[in-house]
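Hi all, a correction to my earlier message: I attached the wrong file for ABM domain-containing protein. Here's the right sequence:
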Amino acid sequence: MLIIAGKLYVAPEDRDKYVESHHDLIQRARSQPGCLDLVIAADPIEEGRINMFEHWESEEQLAAWREIADPPAPVSEILGGDLQKHQISSSGPPF
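and the right structure:
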C-alpha cells in the first residue's frame, strides 16, 4: 500500500484555480483500480498552500494510473512544497 502526501505552494490568487483545474483528474483517479483515495484541496489556513493526498493499493496500480492520468495544463507556477511517497506495510484504526 502507498500513500503520497504533502503540500505545494502557489501564489495565493492562483490557489483556487489550481485546485479547480484538477477536479476532473481527481474524479478519474478515484475510479481507477487500486485508487483508495485522492484529494487535492486548498489549505484552510495558509492562503497559497494546497494539500495533496493519494492512497493506492500498489505501486503497479499507481504506475498504471500515471501512464494515463493526462494532468491538466499548468495554471500556476509551483513555488515550493514537500510531497513524499510512503510505502505502508500495515494499517489499523487510529484510536
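Sorry for the mix-up. The mean pLDDT is 96.
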